[in-house]
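Thread: Fe2OG dioxygenase domain-containing protein, structure

OP (GT): Posting the sequence first so everyone is looking at the same thing. Length is 271 residues per the record. Can we get the C-alpha cells written out before standup tomorrow? I want them in the notebook alongside the other entries.
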Amino acid sequence: MDASTLEPTVTTEVLPDAVAGLMATHLAEKFSAERRAELAAKFADEHIVTLPGFCPPSLLAAIKDESSGIMGRHGTYHDLTFEITDGTPRRMRTVGQPVIRDEGPLIHNFYFAPVLLDFVTGLVGEQVHTCPYAGEHYVISRLDSSGDTHGWHWDDYTYGIILVIEAPHYTEGGFVQAVPNTSWDKANPDVYGALISSQVRSYALEAGDAYVVKTNTTMHRVHPIRGEGQRTIVNMTLASTADLDRPMTHETNDALFGGVRDPREATSQAQ
C-alpha cells in the first residue's frame, strides 16, 4: 500500500491530556531522589546519561503507534553528507516538527510536560527550557536499512533528550556513541581530531529508554545499523538559559527535518 493512502493511526489507550500526569507518576516511582543524584553525577562526568525505562509501557505503546503512523505517511529518506560536520553522513528516514505538531498529540504533550523540564533541569544542574526554535522542538528519525546512521555531529542548542521508540540489539548496531568536552567550529570542523584526542564512550539502549546529552559540546553519533535492525527515536531539543539570547543557525536540522512551516513560528515556544 502506498504510504500516502494510509489512514491516520488512532490511539485510544492514552489520551493526549493524560500524558503529563502519566509521566509525573512514573518518574516519581521510577527515579528516587537517590537515583536522580546518581544520574546527575554521571551526567556531570560524561555529559551524556542513559535513563532506562524512562517512558511508562502504556505510553510507550501509544507513542509507538502514533510515531509509526506518522512515519508511514510522511517519512522521507535522506542520504546526505554535511561539510559543516566534516563530511559525516546522515542516512535515515525522518519526519519534522510541523507534521508532528499536526498529527502527533502524544509526542507534543510529552515534550511540553512540565515534569520533563523539571527532570532534565535536576539532571543537568541548570534550568532548561523548551527550544525557542519550533523546528527543533521534536523530530522523529528511523534507521531501518543496513548502513543507515546519524553520523558524528554536534547540535546548536545545549541539551537534547532522546526517547527510544524501538532499537535493535547492539550487535546489529544502532547504539549511541559520544565524545564529551569537544567543540564545533562550523568553519573548520574536525571530527577526526576529536576522536583522536578524546575517549569515545558507547551506550546500548532499549525501547522505552531515553538519554540526555549536552549536545553542543559532546560530539555524538548513532553507530550504523547492520542486518535487519531498526531504530526509531523521538529527538527533543532543550535550551539552556544562555541559549535563549544566543544567535543560532539550523542548517542540518532544516535539511533533515524541514525546519518550520510558518516563519512566524521560528522563535515560538508556545504550545
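GT: Both are above now. Quick notes for whoever picks this up: The longest strand covers residues 231-240. Residues 173 and 181 are 24 Å apart (CA to CA).
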